[in-house]
């Protein structure tokens, strides 16, 4: 785990304008920078970057965040990967809270990773050179409709049919990194004293080579497709320190911009499908790596877009693959992230369908893809006779684990209601059987409490200003915090969370560091962040506004207390004494407000 103090230091060192500006064309617009949003298609710029806040925000699609968030959303990096990349750009070494790993071990691991990355880069260069020299491989790609431009974009190559062709691409064919990277296989045993080089042979032979890139564009593995008939049709690199099959997707690096422009990502089964679809204008396609789709892969896709469409054959194998993808998606779907399933006729894959019917017809099929909820319910009822008690019970039993792994959401509620309807079960009984909480029933009984003043958003104003200027927290006394919390108990918990975060960050805590801290801590502060972006404040005027809002809250609470005292059953003397104390506090606060008002007018 990366220490929070390092995250704060990193965000204070980097300039978000440089980070974003290297990927998005920005122009100065007043105090901020303006450009076309990289997360949705627009013609009029609505994407702003604030050098003061070190924060970006799009007024068109609502995306916003720090430099870390930008790399995660724009480049598809994980949080750790984004931090690593930013730290490297300013010459910092990312510390980890893992005391079992020594600095020497960490340096050794980094050197090993660097060596393997260099080996994969050299191999990719060699395979690309071999493709230029192989008429058979070039003719195969032409027959599949792949142009030189698309081959260049995806870095396609060719592995010759010889036993040890990579000897021509590396000075030392005996290097241990060739085996560790999965490029070369070394047989065990052999004659005593025999040269290890003679026991080695290339893993990929006589195959079209598809480089698999990570989120930084580095080649970390290969997929090889045989030219003619033979098995296996596709051969992948083994898992290595650089490459884990369940975490990567072929073509995602190349597809990022097309995914944003299309508004969805299309997940297909083969590398050739990805390349052929890009040739036909569908650059938003990616492929799993010969295995079932995993939650890690789905999470990567959902960082890029709000809609994921899986394309499978309509046969039993395709349905089974779709079911595994469904299970991988269920923990991650939400009311804003949708998943759909496209089932093509058994005689077609996406490539052949586009070629026979055209791009527009295929786009229409994508638009009509089956929503996740519909596919889930189809799978639940499949093979069960809903006219019998046993059939309905089996359907519920099958649906139970799927619904349980879904996060609470309106979508899950809708699925539960539909399932209750088709299995003829009351909603609350089905929810009880599944062990998921139903909507809370609100009580209509009114408590006999003293009347409270109406909430007019003052507490939100206080929190908004604290987020914008975390150092203002030192201006709040404990009585101020208690008054705000009592004034709006439902917002009080969030206020305490914000204040605790500010204390944790210390005196150097900034706007962007605080927002990043809250978000990584799982705090839902999106509405509050949106409010901070609606208006720019000069610091001195913002402090006056904060103090004024706090005093107004305290005045309202005092008025409520006075009303309570007057209507109480206290003895006359006690009532008079308490009333006098509260009235004096009111007068003092009103005098302070009057003085602050005079100062404000002087600006």
Overview of this protein structure:
With 603 residues, the protein is of the alpha+beta class. It has 5 domains: 86 residues, Zinc finger, CHC2-typedomain (DNA Primase, Chain A, Alpha-Beta Complex); 134 residues, DNA primase DNAg catalytic core, N-terminal domain (Alpha-Beta Complex), CATH 3.90.980.10; 123 residues, 3-Layer(aba) Sandwich (Dna Topoisomerase Vi A Subunit, Chain: A, domain 2); 52 residues, Pheromone ER-1, CATH 1.20.50; 144 residues, DNAb Helicase, Chain A (Orthogonal Bundle). 51% of the residues lie in helices and 11% in strands. It has 25 helices and 16 strands. The protein is globular.
Could you provide a short overview of the structure?
The chain is α+β, with helices and mostly antiparallel strands. It is built from 25 helices and 16 strands.
């Amino acid at each position: 785990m990366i220490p929070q103090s390092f995250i704060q230091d990193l965000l204070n060192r980097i300039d978000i304008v440089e980070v974003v500006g290297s990927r998005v064309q920005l122009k100065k617009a007043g105090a901020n920078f303006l450009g076309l949003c990289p997360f949705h298609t627009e013609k009029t710029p609505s994407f702003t970057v604030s050098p003061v806040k070190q924060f970006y925000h799009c007024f068109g699609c609502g995306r916003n965040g720090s430099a870390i968030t930008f790399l995660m959303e724009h480049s598809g990096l994980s949080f750790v990967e984004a931090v690593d990349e930013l730290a490297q750009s300013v010459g910092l070494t990312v510390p980890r809270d893992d005391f079992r790993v020594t600095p020497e071990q960490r340096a050794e691991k980094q050197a090993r990773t660097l060596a393997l990355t260099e080996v994969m880069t050299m191999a990719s260069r060699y395979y690309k050179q071999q493709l230029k020299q192989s008429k058979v491989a070039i003719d195969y790609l032409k027959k599949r409709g792949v142009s030189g431009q698309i081959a260049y974009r995806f870095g396609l190559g060719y592995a010759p049919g010889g036993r040890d062709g990579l000897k021509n691409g590396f000075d030392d064919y005996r290097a241990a990194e060739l085996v560790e990277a999965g490029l070369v296989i070394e047989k065990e045993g052999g004659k005593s004293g025999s040269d290890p080089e003679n026991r080695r042979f290339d893993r990929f032979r006589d195959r079209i080579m598809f480089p698999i890139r990570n989120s930084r564009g580095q080649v970390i593995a290969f997929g090889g497709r045989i030219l003619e008939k033979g098995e296996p049709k596709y051969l992948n690199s083994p898992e290595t320190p650089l490459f884990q099959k369940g975490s990567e997707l072929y073509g995602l690096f190349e597809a990022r911009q097309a995914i944003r422009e299309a508004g969805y990502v299309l997940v297909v089964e083969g590398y050739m499908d990805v390349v052929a679809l890009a040739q036909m204008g569908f650059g938003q396609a990616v492929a799993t790596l010969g295995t079932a789709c995993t939650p890690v892969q789905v999470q990567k896709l959902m960082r890029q877009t709000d809609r994921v469409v899986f394309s499978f054959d309509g046969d039993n194998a395709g349905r089974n693959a779709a079911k595994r993808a469904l299970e991988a998606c269920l923990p991650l779907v939400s009311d804003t992230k949708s998943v759909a399933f496209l089932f093509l006729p058994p005689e077609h894959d996406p490539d052949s369908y586009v070629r026979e019917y055209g791009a527009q017809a295929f786009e229409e099929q994508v638009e009509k893809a089956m929503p996740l909820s519909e596919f889930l319910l189809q799978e639940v009822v499949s093979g069960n006779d809903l006219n019998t008690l046993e059939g309905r019970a089996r359907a519920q039993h099958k649906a139970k684990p799927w619904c349980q792994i879904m996060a609470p959401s309106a979508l899950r509620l809708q699925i539960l209601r539909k399932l209750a309807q088709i299995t003829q079960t009351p909603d609350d009984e089905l929810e009880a059987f599944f062990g998921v909480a139903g909507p809370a029933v609100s009580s209509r009984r009114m408590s006999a409490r003293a009347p409270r003043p109406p909430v007019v958003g003052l507490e939100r104003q206080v929190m908004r200003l604290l987020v914008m200027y975390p150092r203002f927290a030192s201006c709040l006394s404990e009585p101020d915090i208690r008054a705000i919390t009592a004034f709006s108990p439902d917002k009080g918990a969030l206020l305490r969370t914000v204040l605790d975060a500010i204390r944790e960050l210390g005196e150097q805590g900034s706007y962007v560091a605080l927002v990043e801290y809250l978000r990584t801590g799982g705090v839902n502060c999106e509405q509050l962040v949106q409010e901070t972006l609606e208006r720019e404040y000069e610091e001195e005027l913002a402090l006056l506004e904060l103090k004024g809002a706090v005093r107004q809250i305290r005045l309202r609470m005092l008025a409520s207390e006075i009303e309570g005292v007057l209507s109480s059953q206290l003895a006359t003397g006690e009532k008079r004494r308490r009333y006098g104390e509260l009235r004096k506090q009111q007068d003092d606060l009103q005098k302070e407000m009057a003085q602050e008002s005079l100062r404000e007018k002087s600006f």
